[in-house]
Amino acid sequence: MSGDITHRAAQWIAGGATLVAGSVLSDSAIEHYRGSFANKAMFLPLGASALSIVHDGNLAARGARTGAVGSWTSGTHAASVGVGAAGLGFHVYNIAKQPGGFSLGNFFYQAPIGAPAALVFAGALGAAAHALSSGASALGPVPLQSGRALAGFTALGLAGTAGEAALLHFRGAYHNPAMWLPVTIPPMAALALARTALTGRVHWVTTASLAATAALGLLGTAFHAYGVSRNMGGWKNWRQNLLAGPPVAAPPAFAGVAIAGLGALLLIRRFSRG
Amino acid sequence: MFTHDGWVPMRDYGEDAVDFVIVGTGAGGGTLACKLAEAGFSVIAMDAGAYWRPLEDFASDEQEQTKLYWTDDRIVDGDDPIHLGANNSGKAVGGSTVHYMMVSLRFRPEWFNSRTKLGYGADWPLEWREMWRYYREAEEALCISGPVRYPWGPQRPRYPYRAHPLNAPARYLARGAEKLGIAWSETPIATLSAPRGKAHPCVYRGFCASGCTTNAKQSVLNTWLPRALAAGAEIRDLAMAGRVETKNGRATGVHYFRNGQWRFQCARNVVVAGYAIETPRLLLNSSSSEFPDGLANSSGMVGKNLMVHLNQSVFGYSGDEIRSYKAPPSLALTEHWNYEDRGKDYHGGWCYMAPGPLPADWARTVSAKGKWGAGLLEEMSRYNHAVGLKMVGEVLPYERNRVSLSEQTDRYGLPIARVTFGFGDNERAMRTHALDFMDRALDAVGVTERWRNEEETAHLMGTARMGEDPATSVVNADCRSWDIPNLWVCDGSVFPTSGGVNPSLTIQALACRTGDRIAELAARGEL
Q1: What number does CATH give the domain B18-58+89-523?
Q2: ipTM greater than 0.90, yes or no?
Q3: In terms of DSSP bridges, do strands B161-162 and B145-146 run parallel, antiparallel, or are they unpaired?
Q4: Which of residues 206 through 245 in chain B touch A, CB cutoff 8 A?
């Protein structure tokens, strides 16, 4: 019974990791294409996130139990974490060398500082999901079975993603009231989830706000598609406006993190019942 | 305006008396038309130009878009005759804001008292704090995209929209300023960085100076005038005003030429908003036995104190590709020398921005260096690598710089304006300092083969100055003429001094204030 729950949690978390990796793949493909792949390293997140999708998507979809985590799988997740971390460094360097340095203008328009962190996140979630599914009690030094460390980690991820939405929606001057949604609901979910991680008790608010965040992530894609249509030429001019408009592929990252958070809740509930 | 083949209803007042007839629909007249209509007055605003619809009527073609300039005959003379046309006129509904560079800067507060506080020019009859409020109103109406923190002057509220990303010339300006140790900033600019209503955000096409085809540019044409129409104003285009009629010391209406004939529009108030050449021309041409020297001219100041801005530049070439024509020009600026008076041997301030000349404009600029034929071709092939800095510098008011009427007449039979202009020593000293400084700023970022374009000027101001004293000014702080209580002037001609920034935002702020004041005066029965 408890093994089933662990496996179900692993599936949820792997599903979340897949969504986040999918968001990274499509978003970095579009944005790095926009940057003409000026640096060959700009291909790396595409490869890493694609591998993550294959491995984590497989786990999320598969009902059966797996054995020990294969070295390919571990390598894939390590690659995602590594490429994401290197990307963070590149993006920070890119901002630092601009005129004005760490100014708001550069945070708005230069390499997005938070985006590579999503790949780190996808890799770590994927690794945790596979470890859980293989029956391991910990991933390195991090205990997994209680779900609390995972809840804390996803709370952090939600807060970071909301932070990036806050920055970029501020850039858009919150011209549409809907732009306030991702800076209100996900932070609430992050707070509730962090509280759950600390107390080990699941409140219905946590579950509800995570579910709302997941729904919002998918809705966000629709809103961003509408945002693309608000540019000159609308969707008829998609080749330009996909690049100029709001990133259509970004909002599902919210859904991915929230789904992983729901997976962590499964573990916490199980644990608190003993 | 915002859709292809779209139409909006407009009121038609006919020629019965309305509360206000406004001559000119630019930054002054168009803004005031909106304010007055929204205050409940019946308003007709006339313009000699056409009511264009940017989505359909504008082409990405510099030559075609000269249709937006006022290119009627004028006589220019003086020691430094002004080149009139592109960057100091407009002949379209919306005025020159239809093709302006959108740079929307506030005056330095001290400039409103430059005589008392800084020792030159003339004081404005206005207090800067009050103007600060009206600047805000104009910035909100235009949805200005600007920096979150502005490095100069008293704190100002956040701009409605965020600043645009810097294009290459703006980045060169920023790096140069950093090398020389002065502050720089993204320029507050009237083009959208996010959608607004039916208007799309800027696509960084770079044809701003030829009129924006996408409506991202926030001009009088697509901000104040749609509001004015909604509030019941009539915009009468292709109507050339020739004469303001007066009787018993009051204005009674405007004679104007439209559809091949002279017509007369009755009005209880007349606002002249034709900018610094056409405004004095109309006032002077409206002379009568009652007002033999022209209307509102008991001080003799109508037409005098014409000012321009110094608009000289330094250009050179970079090893990198710049493509300065991409994105709106002037995306970065420094107002350092507007706010720093130490180290100057002249009065007044100046700022500089990163220009983005379009190809034909650029060809004219380099041919002025004596390039022609193969030499010009070779120079044009390096267009993508050209980068420069361009100043907007304050010019002092001199009574000898003036607009007067010549003996010659134009196709309407109206006397052609004679525009007499010459710089003083102050302008020459400022120009030397500015060009030297901009040259250093380009040198510091590795721009080579630099040269100075010392010819250009921009904008027009003065010729119907406002003031506290009827003996030395044409209008009071409310832009109301001292001599004729129902005659008003609302455009750049009321500026007593020119300041070191582009004037459009100040003109709109003044128009907002004038609109509010007229409503107050009307409520008190003092119109």
Answers
A1: 3.50.50.60
A2: yes
A3: parallel
A4: 214, 216
